[in-house]
């Protein structure tokens, strides 16, 4: 994830929060006074919940990256034509100056 000026990106913070929550919940389940069957059931439920949230996060990140790349391509194409036009104009002016 990208390092922002003076801190971490929102995605980094969210991922750290989710991982910290998973570790904390796992420890709480393992240390809680309940049967092994009940503990395994809770761990399985927690795992499914975290997998769903992580999947949603990854999908959102993919959408954001795709959108950003698309916008970058558009800007590049816009600037590319302006640069080519400026280069051609400069080239023509240079050739006129040489042939004087």
Automatic annotation (TrEMBL):
It comes from the Bacteria. Keywords: Membrane, Transmembrane, Transmembrane helix. The keyword Transmembrane applies. InterPro entries: Desiccation-related_membrane, YtxH. Signal peptide: none annotated. The chain crosses the membrane at residues 12-32. The keyword Transmembrane helix applies. This is Gas vesicle protein.
């Amino acid at each position: 994830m990208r390092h922002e000026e003076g801190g971490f990106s929102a995605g980094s913070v969210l991922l750290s929060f989710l991982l910290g929550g998973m570790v904390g919940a796992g420890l709480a389940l393992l240390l809680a006074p309940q049967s092994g069957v009940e503990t395994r059931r809770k761990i399985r439920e927690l795992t499914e919940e975290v997998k769903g949230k992580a999947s949603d996060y990854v999908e959102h990140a993919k959408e954001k990256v795709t959108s950003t790349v698309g916008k970058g391509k558009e800007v590049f194409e816009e600037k590319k034509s302006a640069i080519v036009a400026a280069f051609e104009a400069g080239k023509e002016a240079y050739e006129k100056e040489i042939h004087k």
